[in-house]
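Figure 2 data, in text form.
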Amino acid sequence: MAKLGAHVCATDLPELFPLFQENSHANGLLVQNEGVQVASENRGRLMFRSLRWGADTLLQENFQLILGSELLYWGGWSLFDEDPQPGLIRVLASECAKGSVAILVGFSREPRREQHFFEQIAARGVQVRFISPTERTKGKVFVAILSMGKFDTSDCMRQG
């Protein structure tokens, strides 16, 4: 998206910054240091910020659009790892309250966990709308749009 002219702030756990660097470099944009923006040929910007969901300090920027992919599953690989879902709910609800729209896409791996996530975020006043899957992807993939205000999903479907 930065190569198309968008200002992009990618977030992940701090230990995943090297993987982000590798992926951005493979796409023609090299981010040397966390928090530093690099310009693309179309005036887009790309930067990386560490974000541990649920941390006390949230991002200070205001975002028009948040794209999230594969955010709702959790392997629970360690008994000592805290479930990230409550923190993700806090971050997304906070960003939507500031006017952001979030689009979440993922494979449906844990339907009960996913349903719990959407119920909890809706309980915070966030509107959840699902884009209807195709017959081929029904029950396998979800696309959800989260917002605080009115957001007509047909607006995003007209362009493409």
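Caption note: The chain has four helices and seven strands.
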